[in-house]
Amino acid sequence: MRAILSGLHHKKNLQELELELIDVPEPFDDLAVTFLEKQTKASITIPVSKVLSAQVVRLRLNANDLQFTAEGQSEFSWELYLNLQQQNTRGLIQVESEYLSDRHQLTLTSYYQLNSDANGMALFNMHTEQAEDEFTINAINLQDDQLQVIGPSRINNHAITNQRLVLKNVQADSSAEWPITQMTLHGLFTGIIPLSDLAADSTQQLFIRSTIDGQDLEQRVVLAKSLAGQVTQAVTPGHRLVIIDKRFDNGIRVQETAAPSIPQRLANVPGKVGGATKLLSMLMDKANLFYMRRLFKRGHRPYEQPTLIFESFGGRQVSDSPYAIYQLFKQLYPGFTFIWSIDRSQKKFCKENGIPFIIRRTSKWVRTLEKSSFWISNARFPSWVKKPNYVTYIQTWHGTPLKKLGLDIENVSMPGTTTTKYHANFVREANRWDALVSPNDYSTRIFRSAFGFNNQILKVGYPRNDELINSTREDVTALKQELGIPLDKKVVLYAPTYRDNQFAEKGKYTFELPFSLDEFRDRYGKDAVLVLRMHYLISNALDISGYEGVVFDFSNHPNISDLYLISDMLITDYSSVFFDFAYLKRPILFYPYDYHMYKDELRGFYLDYEKDLPGEIAHNESQLLTMIGDKLKTPDMSDNQKFMDFYQRFCSIDDGLSSLKIVNYVVQQIEKHG
Question: What is the C-alpha to C-alpha distance for residues 402 and 579, in angstroms, rounded to an integer?
Fold first, then answer.
C-alpha cells in the first residue's frame, strides 16, 4: 500500500493537500493524515475532508497550525503519515512525495514549502521569523542590456500592489527606482532596469518598494538559493562591466565598473587552459567506468555544467510542453546549458530564433545525450538510445488520453509490429522515465495502467497550457496579426485526429476533408474564417487553393496553443486537443463522422464519448454547418453546467504555473545531487 502527495490547492486562506492512494483496499472506515514534526516529535492529526475516488483523497488544513511556540525553533519539518482504519485494523503509511512546490508566502514573516527527503518521503516545511524587511525573488539575470528580476506579486493569494525596483548607491547614499508593470506567469512579476541607467563605478544594493494590505513597505531583495544557472556578468555596448553577486545575508549587490582590457583578459587564459586540460583528463579517465553501459563504444562522463536536452515529437518540432519549459528555464536560469534535439527540418527555425541544437542521429547527438543531466521530451526516444544512470528523464507526454494507450490497447493493428511487441516496448520505455507529467487524476490513473508506470508522477498540469491561462487580449490580437488572420472575423479551428487507417503504404497517407469548404464559405465566409490543423503525416495532402482569405492551413505551425488562442470555437473528433482548448472556456463541437468504425475497429475510448464530452456532437455535415453558427453565438461557456463539470474534472488543476513547477523540480534535483 502506498500514499503519495500529488498536489496542492489553495482554498481562500487554507491549503488543500491531495493524496494518491495505490493498492489501498476499500472500504475506508476512517482516513486521516498525521503530521509528525521531525525535531520536536509533535504531532497533529487532520481528517481527510474529501474522498474524490478510491485513488484520490484530499485534506484541508491551515498552514499556520503547523507552527507553534518552541524555544529557539523557527523552522518546522513535518513528515506525513496516512492514518488508515479498516474494520478492526489500524495502520500508518508514510506519505511519499510527487509534488515539490515553490515557496508560498503566508505572511511577511512566514512561508511554507512542500518537499521530499532523500528517500522521496513527503515533507511539509514551515518557516517562520523571516525578517519583515526581506523580499525573496525567484530569479535575477543580466540579459539584453537589462537587469531582469522575477519575483512574486502575491502573498497568500493577496495581490501586492505598486511594486517598484530600487537600487541604492552605497557610495553616494542615493537611490533610484523603476516601476514594475510586466506580469509574466500568474502571481509573478518581471522587473526591468536598463543597464544604461546604472551609475558608473558604483556598488548598489537592490530593494523593492510595494504596498501590502495597505501598508507601504521597502524591503531588501534576497535570493535564498544560489546564483547557479543565472547570468551574473554582462559587458555593455559602452564597454562597461556589470556584475551581480550575493551578500552574506543573501541580499543582491550590483556592481558597475569599466570592463577589463584585452591584455587583462589574456592574462587569465593560461589558468583557463590548464583547467580545461584537467577537466578533459578527468572526462577521459571517467569514461572508462561506464564503457559497457553505453550503446556505443565510448562512454562519457556528464558535463560539469547542468545540461538539459529538449525534444518534441521525436525532433520534428520545437514545440509543446518541452518548449514551454525551455522558454521559462532560459528566462530564469540562462546560465545553464540548454540544447534541442531536432531533425534537420527544424534547423532553420532554431537558427532564426537563436535556439541551440544538435541534429538527431549524429555522433555529436549521441555524445551530447549521454553527457547531459536531464532529458525533457513529450514522446519516446528510440529504444536503442541508452539512458545513463545520472540522467533524469522527464516525460511530459502530449495530451490527456481519450483514445486507449499502451497496454490498454487490446489489439494493435499498426504496420510493422504486433500487440505483444507494442506492449513490451511501451513498458520498457516507461521504465526509463524518472518522472511523468500528468494534467489531472484521470490521466494519472491511465498512465499508471497503460504504461505499467510506477515511478514519479508530477501532477502539475501541462506546461504548454500556461500560455492559455496567462495570455491577454492584446496577446491574441498580436497573434492574429502575425498569422494574417482578419481581426474583424470569428475564427473556427478544425483539428481532427490522425487515424490509423489513413496509412496507405510506406511514406504515403490519405486524407479528405469531411465537409464542404464551399458550403462553409457560402454560409460563414463574410463573418468567419476556418483554420485547419491537421496531423503532420497528412498535412501535405491538403489543397485549399481557391479559398484564400477564408481557409488557413496552419498544420505545420509549431505552437498549437497559438491556434487555440486565436480561435472562437473548436471542431474536433477524437483528438485530445479539446482537453486543452477547454481551458479557454470557449465552445467545442464534435464531428465524429466515422464514430462507430473508429470506436469498434480502431482503438476505443476511455471516456463515454456520447455522455462525457464538453460539447455537442454533430453526426453529419448538415448538422455540423448548422451548429457552427449556434456555437459562434455563445463565445463563453462559463454558464454551461455540463461544460464546467468537465472543466473542473480535467482543467482545474492547472493554475498557469506548470512550467515553473517543472523548472523548480529540475533545479531541486540539481541542488540535491550537487
Answer: 9
User: What pLDDT is attached to residue 266?
Assistant: 53
Q: Quick check: 156 and 13 in contact, CB under 8 A?
A: yes
Give me the mean pLDDT over the 276-288 stretch: 43
DSSP 112-143: EEEEE-TTSBEEEEEE----TTEEE-SEEEEE
State the Rg of the chain over Cα. Answer: 27
CA 438 to chain centroid, in Å, comes to: 10
Confidence of residue 47 (pLDDT cuts 50, 70, 90): very high
Give the pLDDT of residue 503.
Answer: 44
Handedness of CA 72, 76, 79, 85 (dihedral sign): positive
- Asked whether the beta carbons of 44 and 65 are under 8 A apart, the reply is yes
- From the CB of residue 346, how many other CB atoms can be counted at a distance below 10 Å? 22
Where is 474: in which H helix or E strand?
Answer: helix 473-483
Distances (CA, A) of 323 to 17, 57, 187, 355, 467: 29, 32, 21, 11, 11
Output the DSSP codes for 250-290.
Answer: SBEEEEEEEPPPHHHHHHTHHHHHHHHHHHHHHHHHHHGGG
Q: What are phi and psi of 300, to 5 degrees?
A: -140, 140
In this structure, are strands 146-152 and 154-155 parallel, antiparallel, or unpaired? unpaired
Asked if residue 439 lies in contact with residue 579, where contact means CB atoms within 8 angstroms, the answer is yes
Cβ proximity of 157 and 105 under 8 Å: no
Per the rule left: phi > 0, alpha: psi between -120 and 50, beta: everything else, 42 is beta
One-letter amino acid of 103: R
Tally of CB atoms within 10 A around 276:
10
> Which pLDDT score, from 0 to 100, does residue 497 have?
83
Cα separations in angstroms, 319 against 323, 324, 485, 579: 5, 7, 21, 18
Phi/psi for 266 (5° steps) reads: -65, -30
User: Is there a cis peptide before residue 27, judged by omega within 30 degrees of 0?
Assistant: yes
pLDDT tens-place string over residues 387-417? 888 999 999 999 999 888 888 887 776 667 7
Instruction: Enumerate residues 6+ apart whose C-beta is below 8 A from 468.
Output: 561, 564, 565, 580, 583, 584
Surface-to-core class of residue 639, CB atoms within 10 Å of its CB (0-12 exposed, 13-18 middle, 19+ buried): exposed
CB atoms within 10 A of CB 392: 20
Q: Is the pLDDT of residue 358 over 80?
A: yes
- What is the tens place of the pLDDT at every residue in 416-473? 778 888 888 888 889 899 999 999 999 999 999 999 998 999 999 999 999 999 999 9
Q: How far is the C-alpha of 376 from the C-alpha of 379, rounded, in Å?
A: 9
Residue with cell 514551515: 126
Write out the DSSP string of 550-579: TEEE-TT-S-HHHHHHH-SEEEESS-THHH
Neighbours of 192 (CB within 10 A): 17
Cell representation of residue 671: 541542488
Q: What is the pTM of this model?
A: 0.82
pLDDT for res 414: 66
Summarised one tens digit per residue, pLDDT across range 72-88 is 678 899 999 999 876 66
- Specify whether the CB–CB gap between 586 and 568 falls below 8 A: yes
